[in-house]
Amino acid sequence: MTKKSPSDVLQQIEKHYASLSPSGKSIAHYIQQNPIAVLSQSTSLIAEKTGTSKATVSRFFRQLGFDSHQQAKEALVQLREQGVPVVSPSSGVLQHESDSKNLANTFEGTSSEALSDIATLLASAGQVTLIGFRNAYPIALHFRQQLKQIRGSVRVLPQPGQTLSEDIIDLTKNDVVVLFGFRRRTRQFKFVLNSIKHCKTVLITDPTGQGYRHDVDHLIVTHIGSDSPFDSYAAPMSLVASLCNLTYEALGSKAADRVDAITDIYIQMDELESPKR
After folding, report:
1. CA angle 167, 238, 192 (to 5 degrees)
2. How far apart are CA 240 and CA 136, in angstroms?
3. Up-side HSE of residue 68: CA atoms within 13 Å toward CB?
4. Of 136, 135, 118, 148, nearest to 262 (Cα)?
5. 175-181 sheet: strands from edge to edge
6. Full-model pTM
7. Does the bond joining 275 to the residue before it have cis omega, within 30 degrees of 0?
8. What is the C-alpha to C-alpha distance for residues 142 and 130, in angstroms, rounded to an integer?
9. Which residues of 236-274 are buried (b: 16+ CB within 10 A; e: fewer)?
10. pLDDT per position as a tens digit, 134-184
């Protein structure tokens, strides 16, 4: 095909449904109910399941804009590699098995020296700014919650309903910015990177973000891939825990004193459930 091929089979079914033949609609209904069939089943098996022929199935995929059933398979695989939720033939793999693999790959590829250097930055910075978009935002928020227990001046951007410009303009060379950027990053991601070059910068990303290595002071690659439709963020969350623990060590008694002070306020304000229930 000279034109760009489509990527999502289910979207193409919705787009072309009205023009499909009765046999084509039967195939469409089957695939809508069993989207994994595009990846896991042959043209012959789809034909058998839908009471049609191989030729009809092949024609069906061409009507959707693909050269062939094989091209439709490849398009779905590419979508999953980009982070789009797509069911795959191996989606039955237990989640903890994928998480264990991601955790091992992440920490085997990260030196203890790199983590210690970042922790030292987090401990000594005048202000720590954590920036995360989309799925990265909850990780940045959790990072702030942990760091706030052991040091002051930690914030998360963007604030709900707000833009970034008015906050980024206040950043100085004494600030440390930790930017989270996983696949399917927003278009403004690279512009944010350009705007924080005067700060000390840390990028926590997945393998697709390695192209930004020369744009930041420190880059940590975490693995989030999964055979399930959705990515897993167990490894980035574990990395955050490691960095917080190392930052606690770097701060020493300052961190311990702050923890004690916060605990006293918890008690005074009666904010937490009593351990003696």
Report:
1. 25
2. 12
3. 6
4. 148
5. 154-157, 127-132, 175-181, 200-205, 218-221
6. 0.67
7. no
8. 10
9. bbbbbebbbebbbebbeeebeebeeeeeeeeeeeeeeee
10. 889 999 999 999 999 999 999 999 888 777 888 888 888 889 999 999 877
